[in-house]
Each structure stands twice: as C-alpha cells, then as structure tokens.
Amino acid sequence: MIYKLFNILFLLVLLFILCFSCSTEKDTFLNKTYHNTTAKFNGYFNANEIIKEAMLQYKLGKKENYNELLSIFHYANKEESKALYPAMDTAVAKCEVVISRHSMPSEKSRGNRNTEWCKWIDDNWITIGWAQFYKRDFEGAMEKFKYIEKQYHTESIYYNAIYWKAKTLIEIEDYFSAEELLLDLIIRKEELDELAEDDKSSLKQRLLKIKPNKKSKTKKKSKELKTSHVEFPKNLLSSIYPSLADLYIRNNEKVKAIEYLEKAIETKQKRETKTRLIFILAQLYHEIGDEKASDLYAEVVKRNPNYEMAFQAKIKRALSFSGNDNKSIVNQLIKMLRDDKNIEFYDQIYYALADISLRENNKKQGIEYLELSVNSSTKNNLQKTKSFIRLAGLYYDENNYRKAHYYYDSTMAVIPKEHESYSDINSINKTLVELVDYLDLIQEKDSILNLCKLPEKDLIGVINKIIDKKIEQQIEDREKKENNMNIVLNQNAKTNAGGNLFIWDNNLRSVGFNDFRSVWGSRSLEDNWRRSEKSSVISEDNLNASTEDSIQKASLTVDYYLTQLPCDKQDQLQALQDTLIKSLYGTGNIYIHKLNNKPEAISIFTRLTDEFLPKPLAVAALYQLYLIYKSDKNITLSNKCKKNILDNYPKSEFAKLILDPNYLKKQENLFKKQKKEYALIYSIFENENYYKTIKEVKSKLKDSTNSCFCKYSYINAISHGKLYARTDSLFAFEDALVHTVNNCNNTPYYSYTRNTLDKIRNTLSIQSAENKENSFIYESKQVHNFVVYYPEKSGNINQSKNKISNFNKSSFSTKGYKTSNSFLNEKDQFILVKQFKSMAEAMDYYLAFKVNEKQVKEIKEKHQFFVISEKNLAVIYLEKNLEDYVKFFNKNYLNL
User: Fold this and answer.
1) Is there a single domain that holds both residue 705 and residue 605?
2) Which pLDDT tens digit goes with each residue over 368-407?
3) What is the DSSP string of 282-345?
4) Is the Cβ–Cβ distance between 146 and 124 less than 8 Å?
5) Residue 502 pLDDT > 70, yes or no?
6) How far apart are CA 242 and CA 225, in angstroms?
7) Residue 241 — very low, low, confident or very high, per pLDDT cuts 50/70/90?
8) Which DSSP helix (H) or strand (E) runs through 347?
9) Last residue of a domain, one of 310, 340, 368
10) Shared-domain flag, residues 277 and 305
11) What is the DSSP letter of 497?
C-alpha cells in the first residue's frame, strides 16, 4: 500500500515538474534547462545534422573541374540547389517549431522585452539562415541574418550573422558591401584582441594592489571586465580569410586573393580544407606565372589528398615548373604512364609532356605528344579541347592555316558551348573555314584555267597522268576492301558457332556501310537514292552494276576529261575567272582584316592588280594595297597605288575615298548622327503621328547594329498599338511586340512589351475562338497545369507518375504540387501536375522538367509534355483536339 502511494506521489511530482517546466514565462532553472535542452537537440542539433548530410552528399556527387580554378567553397548553383530543397526545408521546419515553442518568453507575450532566456534560440535562427543560403534563397537568408544582428547584438553570434551577411552579398555579387563587412570584422577582431591584452595587464596590476579582505570585490570587477564587450567567436577568423579570398577570386583580383588565401592557410583549418586551399593558391600562382606554384603543388601531393587531386597536382606541377630540372619531371610523368590506374588520365600526362617539350623549343616532339593526348582522350572532352586548341594555335602562329583549320574544326566538334573560349574558337574556325574554302576554289580554278592554257599535246600528257593515278587508287581501294572482307569473314567463321548468320554480322554491316558511304556519300532512304537530280531518273532495274562499271570506265578516258574542260567555251571560262577573282579578293580581305597577316594580303592583292586590272575587284585590291602601305608608312609604294587609282580610275569610289579627307571623321560622327536621327523620329512619335513613325522606323529596323535599334523597335511597337489596339486587326501589333521581346530582352523595354504581348495574345485568342478558328484562350495569369501525354501502349503509367512525384518532392518540395492521371479518351491518358498560379510559374516547372537528367529523363524523351490552363484543358477533354492545342502552345508559349 505504501509502495503504491509512493508511486502515485512520484508520478504527481513528475507531472508537476513537466507541466511547470514547459512554461516559457518563468525565468527559473528548471524552465530554462528544459527549453535549452529541447531547443538544442530537437532543433539546432538535428537541423544541422540534416544540413551537413545534404551538403556532404552534394559534395560527393559533384565532380571537380581541374581545368578551371577550383572553388573555395562547395555551393550548389541554381539548378543543383533544387536537389537540396527537401533537406533544407526539413531543417527550417524543425528550427521554426523550436523557436515557436521554446522562446522565453514567447513571442506573443514578450512585448517590448528583448531578453531571450533560452540560449539556443539564436542558434536556431542562424540555422534557418544557413538552410536558406544553401538553397539559394538569398533574400530569406539575408532577412534572418539581419534579424540576428539586430536582436542579439550582445551575443557572439552577432559576429557570425555579419559574416553570413557578407557571404550572402558575395553570392548576389555585391562585392563592395561584402568586402567592407569582412574587413570590418577583421579590424574588430584586432581591436578586441588589443582590448583583451589591456584588460589582462590592468587586472594583473589591480590584483597586486588588492588586499585579501577585498577579494569579493576583485572577482566582481574581473567579471565586469570580461563582459565589457561581445566576445569574438573563436574560429570565425579562419572562415573570414577564405571568404575574402573567394570574393577577390570572383572579382578577378588575384593578388588580393593570394594574400588572404595565405592568411587562411596559416589559421586552424581541417586537413582536407587546408589541402584544398593550398591547391587553389598554387593554381593562382600558376595563372600569374609565379614559380611558387610548383612548390605548392608538390606540397599538396605530400599532404596525401584524394587520388584525383594528387594526380592533378603532379600534372600541374609539371605544367608550372620553370626550373632547370625538367628531366626529373619528365621521368615522373613517364612513370605515371606505366601505372594502369592512370589510363584514363593519359591525355593529361601527354599534354604535360608536350608542354615541357614546347618550352624546350622541341616543337616536333611537342606536336607528337599533343597528338597522343588527343588520341588517348576518350571521355575528357575538356582535355581534348585543350589539346586541339594548343595544336591549332601552333600551326596558326606559323601561318599554316590549312592545318590550323583542321584542328580548330576538330575543336568545335568537342568543345562545350559553355567553355570560356567557345566564341573565340568558333569565330576563328569560321574565318579559317571561309579562308580554306577560298583557297580550295583558287586552287581548283587555277588548275582548270592553267590546263586550258596548255598546248594540246601537254594537256593530254597531264590527263594521262591523272588517269593513271585514279586507276592506281581504285586498285588500292579494291584490294583494301577485299582484305577487310576476308578478315571479317575469317572472324565470322571463328565465331559462327554461336549460331549467327553472316548476314546479321555487325562487322560485315559496318564494312558494307563504310564502303557505301565512300562511294555514294550520305543519302536519304528514298526511291532513286543514287540520283541527286530526280527530274531525269531512269528505272532502277536499268541502272545495274554493269551500267555503273561502264560509266566508271568511261570516266577514265582522255576524251572524257577533254569534254569536262571548258577550254573552248568562253562564257564558262569567264565565269571561272570571275569566281577566281572573287576568291582572291575574299582571301586577301581575310588575311588583312581577320588574320592581320599583311605579307599574305599584299601577295594576294598584288596578284589581283597584276593579272586582273581593270576589273572592279582588282581596283579594290589596289586600294587595299594603298591602305596597307600607308599604315606601314611606306610612302613610295602608297603613293604609287594612289597615283594609279587617281590616274586610271578617277570615277571609282576608291578615288573618292582617297580624295575625301573627312571620311574617317564621318565614320566617327556616325554614332552622333544616329542619335540625331532617332531624336527626329521620336519627335514625330511624340506628336502622335504614328503612321509616319512606323514608316520612318521600318528602314532603321533592318540595321541591328544601329545604336538606337531597340529604341526604334519599342516606339514601332507602341505606334502599332496606338493604331491597331482598338481595331479587329491586332496581328501587326503582335508582330511588333514580338520583335521587341525577341531582340531587346535585357533592356528597359522588355517588361512592358512582354506584358502587352500577353494581353494581345489573349485578345487574339478570344477573337479566334469567336470566329470558330480555334477553341483555346491565352490567359497567362490564370491557373495552369503541367501535362504529359501518355498514349496507349506507352508502358506502366503508375511508374511514370511515381517518377514525376519524386521529381516534385526533390525539386519543388515546398510547392505542394500534386500528380494524378486521367483519360483523354478510351485509350490515351494524361499525367497531370497541379496547380500553378500562373503561366510563368508553370513555365518555370516546364523548364526544370525539360532539363532534368535524372528522375524524368526517359519520360521527357518519349512523351509530349506541355503547360495548359484549366479552361483549355477542359476544352481538350471535350473536343479531343490535342494536336490543335500543341500548335497553340508552340505559338503562344514557346514562340518568343
């Protein structure tokens, strides 16, 4: 009985303690202990563990690009951050619950009191800020950090909040403000350190003077000294230095970045972090050509990092080494080639060996190594791009444009579009393609014209040599094909035990396919595929192998070649010469204006003037020579060209250019002229003369290089609106708006025209519906759905729904989108994702779905998907006109 009473009493006491300790309004030990413990572990600790795990998984899944400067911090970009949403949202939710339940006193009853009795509430606030920062919600993160700075200015977390404010400013590229905050933190740390030293010295002197019976007062004073300022977080400085280095790297201030990276390395860091910082420091020294890079890369290797970083450090050490002991570096690289673990890195090793050879002026060996680098590169397109660019540059620098063209063209086949040199390489490649095309034309036309100049006996001798070479080549090709076929048949005989008929042998198929391509080229699968001209096609039955053989034999006769030459056809000879002249002038222009190769340009233009004056392009070549000699201050030759033009071609435009000393000044004043012309047309627009405005602007919109192009496009759209907005014909207005939206995206004119275009398309769609031309209405502000069309026999629709649901949870966890399916008809179905507040929100989802390469990759590749408003979806269900809507979607949603 006593035992039962004791248990009941114990339970009552425990219940009493739990009830009263839950109160957030009493500043008692029991209350604070309960709320502190719960706030720490239920919120701060658990949330941070979730964040750490998510960031670790992101880090492990991200492949480093060692061809670029490594980033100091592992942060996700806009696309990557979507995968972090679920974890970060969970962390935020945990902290928000803790803050709402365990703030002391509670937010509702606090009134004007700023004191927070629960010491872990501020940590929960900053954890929310971190989660929002990692998911790139920088506005929300900044709001939390500012709140902490204001609310907890007497706590050390105050400094952490300022630090993370600076980090957020770096991410939104406000580098000036971020730099100011971080430098202020460093200064504050130094001030606090000085103050602490002064406090210690003063306290020591006071303690020596104090009598024993004054001990209690001494303790009180000491406590006052320690709390007279906010304590600076112990390890914050080791985070500030790397962040400043990150800021300066992003702002391309490499010298400052180096300074703060060195300071960061001197502070206490995790081993892995310090190794990474040393590697980045080596990269920066490497970029500015400082020999310290080599030693730093060697230090990275000594610190035993992961295999890839160690490998890259060895390679980059070789590339940055500027000492005299190249032999030991080469031996180390060759040793790396013998290690099977490095097979996938052979391309980088060969590149490093090529770099050393080229620095030693051994160009031949350098090119051989670069070729090996290209040939051994199977997966690393960035390295293959790098090797191709280096090869192309070597030939480009020595003016071997044909070989340079070959390697630049190869570069364009592998270079990623986001590569920093993509536009430059693309531009050079286009120039060289144009140049080589001209050179080929020159060679071809010269050959034909030179053949026609030969006596008949010599001409026949040349033709016989050409025929002999062709016959030899055909015999060689036939023997090669027969050998290849025998090899394949032998292989097939050995493997035929597997039961495969030779007609299904893939090797034989490949040989046959390549033989076909070598003879016929790339042909479409269609009737009469042999003929490029279908107007005079004979029946396929008549075009048999014997006919083809006879045609081939006929092409190997002297008479055949004589009939192909235009030697006795004056009109064809003249066309050949005109093509040759155009090709020569085009080549000269490329040499002087795009390649800045004056000697080659002079050679081409001189040939034109020597052989083809007074042809117009030959006169133009003479003027080009005048400009080149004048720029080189070769007065004698420039005056000779000038005299020739003025004496023999006084009415040409080139003579006028020479005689007009204000020509260059006119060019310089062109910009001012364009501004004046715009001001004049704008005054017409202001006077509401819209017909005349449209008429005047029409010619201006043909020149996209005009400095006022977007202004013209904008007033053209407004003028169309003023004239047609209240009429039944809005298509001209729509076209004018589309022109501005398409061509002036990053200008102040985009927003208005985009919104107006939405309204116009709404009106036009209504008109079309009223005229029964279409059943769909364009309403960009209405609720939309995302739809995947799932026709019959497309597989298991539930599996696809699950994949889309997983995609929604991982990328849009806070949106609450719902996935369902419904029948369009008896056989075909829709998978629906609901609901989006507007077209813009739905199109954001559409884009995310389109670029996803994980959960929904197979779905997007096999099925139609689109965005649709609720009303238009109802129309599809009613009328079953899916194809009409797809056209409507493409025109109104994608056609911009």
Assistant:
1) no
2) 989 888 888 878 888 888 899 999 999 999 899 999 999 9
3) HHHHHHTT-THHHHHHHHHHHT---HHHHHHHHHHHHHH--SS-HHHHHHHHHHHHT-GGGGGG
4) no
5) no
6) 32
7) very high
8) helix 346-359
9) 310
10) yes
11) G
| pLDDT for 203 beyond 80 | no
* Cα–Cα distance measured from residue 481 to residue 458, given in angstroms and rounded to the nearest whole number: 35
Q: State which residues form the domain around 276.
A: 270-310
Unique residue bearing structure tokens 């390649």: 595
Query: Structural domain tally of the chain?
Result: 6
Helix (H) or strand (E) holding 214: none
Asked if 614 and 686 sit in the same domain, the reply is no
Please state the rounded mean pLDDT for residues 824-846: 88
Q: Which two tokens stand for residue 587?
A: 């080549």
Residue 865, domain CATH: 3.30.70
SS3 annotation, 435-472? HHHHHHHHHHHHHHHHHHHCCHHHHHHHHHHHHHHHHH
Question: Which H, E and C letters describe 583-624, residue by residue?
Answer: HHHHHHHHHHHHCCCHHHHHHHHHHHHHHHCCCHHHHHHHHH
The pLDDT confidence band at residue 725, using thresholds 50, 70 and 90, is low
Q: pLDDT tens digit string along 740-759?
A: 888 888 888 888 888 888 88
Contacts of 606 (CB under 8 A, 6+ apart): 621, 625
pLDDT at 493 over 90: no
- Crossing angle of helices 731-743 and 709-724, in 10° steps, is 160
Query: Which backbone phi and psi does 788 adopt, to 5 degrees?
Result: -115, 125
Residue 896 tokens, joined:
């911009």
Segment 882-896 mean pLDDT: 85
Last residue of a domain, one of 335, 364, 379: 379
User: Domain check: are 303 and 282 in the same one?
Assistant: yes
The reply to whether 342 and 296 lie within a common domain is no
Note whether 692 and 752 are same-domain residues.
yes
Report the first-to-last Cα separation within the chain, whole angstroms: 86
Does residue 300 or residue 506 have the better pLDDT? 300
Tell me, yes or no, whether 161 lies in a domain.
no
Q: Is residue 588 part of a domain?
A: yes
What does pTM read for this prediction? 0.53
Enumerate the β-bridge partners of residue 790.
829
Nearest Cα to 168, choosing from 141, 135, 128, 131? 141
Q: Examine residue 390 and state whether it is found in any structural domain, yes or no.
A: yes
596 backbone φψ class: left, alpha, beta (φ>0; ψ -120 to 50): left
Q: Any alpha helices (H) in 103-214, and if so which ranges?
A: 107-110, 121-134, 138-151, 157-171, 175-209
Residues sharing a CB contact under 8 Å with residue 872, sequence separation 6 or more, in sequence order: 776, 777, 885, 888
Cα 340 to Cα 194: distance, rounded to the nearest angstrom: 57
Whether residue 387 sits in one domain with residue 375 = no
The residue among 528 and 296 whose pLDDT is bigger is: 296
* Mean pLDDT for the stretch of residues 816-828: 88
Which of 873, 881, 797 is CA-nearest to residue 834?
873
Angle at 581 between CA 456 and CA 591, to 5 degrees: 125
Whether the per-residue pLDDT at 408 is higher than 50: the answer is: yes
In one letter, which amino acid is 272? E
The larger pLDDT score, comparing residue 433 to residue 554, is at 433
Amino acid found at 578: D
| Angle formed at CA 844 by CA 55 and CA 777, multiple of 5 degrees | 165
Mean pLDDT across 439-459: 86
Task: For residue 745, tell me if it sits in a domain.
Answer: yes
- Quote the pLDDT of residue 116: 67
What mean pLDDT is predicted for residues 792-820?
83
431, pLDDT greater than 70: yes
Q: Do both 677 and 637 map to the same domain?
A: no
Predicted local confidence at residue 652, as pLDDT: 83
